[in-house]
Amino acid sequence: MAILKVARLGHPVLRQLSAPVPRGQIRTAETQRLIDDMVETMREYNGAGLAAPQVHVLQQICVIEVHGNPRYPEAPAIPLTVLINPVVTALTEETEDGWEGCLSVPGPYAELPRAFRARVDGVDIDGRPVTIEATGMAARCLQHEMDHLEGIVYVDKLPEEVRDRLLAEAAGPGGELPA
Ligand code: ZN
User: Fold this and answer.
1) Residue 64 bridge partners (DSSP)
2) pLDDT at res. 170
3) Quick check: is 178 in a domain?
4) What is the pLDDT, as a whole number, of residue 107?
5) What is the pTM of this model?
6) Mean pLDDT of 115-130
7) Residue 177 lies in a domain
8) Catalytic residue among 94, 145, 150, 160
9) CA of 163 to the centre of ligand 1 (A)
10) Is the pLDDT of residue 68 over 90?
11) pLDDT above 60 for 122
12) Average of pLDDT values for 5-16?
């Protein structure tokens, strides 16, 4: 296994659409190794989730895990979940504000609304159909990772003045603002 390089905000790979993984490719050594490496990379950086575009691979794969995570001390545990070709559906119009960060935007966090309840349909690491229904923090994680597969980063959803402040904080003093 290996720790992969995580793309930072400003890298064009974070802005591209990821392609579905063909069914016959899921069980290949290459895909299985990528998933193993994504899990290891997420854990190394204490992330609650990681999407393939964040490690420079434009495929619809993401991993999620919240388990005694020091970045999210208040969050309930979510077991390791691998989602391939996932489609997210909001199950309620009700939204909840919550704090979010991203391994591609090191440093700051921001509060933003997400659907309180969501469902994801996809396939798992063995290519078997999987459906997950989640609420609260888990639903937030799912929506955050699904966005990455569409080239969306959570900062896009913030009001402009909040986003500008957050990006300045991420860039540091004298740093260049990412786009
Ligand atoms: Zn992210």
Assistant:
1) 49, 81
2) 79
3) no
4) 80
5) 0.90
6) 95
7) no
8) 145
9) 15
10) no
11) yes
12) 96
The pLDDT assigned to 16 comes to 98
Q: Indicate if 145 belongs to the active site.
A: yes
Residue 138 domain boundaries: 12-171
| 116 contact partners, CB below 8 Å, separation of at least 6 | 92, 94, 95, 96, 135, 136, 139
Q: How far is the CA of 110 from the centre of ligand 1 (A)?
A: 12
Query: What's the total number of domains in the chain?
Result: 1
CB of 158 closer than 8 Å to CB of 110: yes
Q: What is the CATH number of the domain that holds 18?
A: 3.90.45.10
In a domain, 5, yes or no: no
- 3 state SS for 24-76: HHCCCHHHHHHHHHHHHHHHHCCCCEEEHHHHCCCECEEEEEECCCCCCCCCC
What's the CA-to-centroid distance between 14 and ligand 1, angstroms?
A: 10
Stretch 154-174: mean pLDDT, rounded? Answer: 87
Å from CA of 58 to ligand 1 middle:
14
Distance 103 CA to ligand 1 centre (A): 6
pLDDT tier, 176 (very low <50, low <70, confident <90, very high otherwise): low
Distance from Cα 83 to the centre of ligand 1, integer Å: 15
The Cα diameter of the chain in Å comes to: 49
* Residue 144 is assigned to a structural domain of this protein: yes
- Stretch 91-109: mean pLDDT: 92
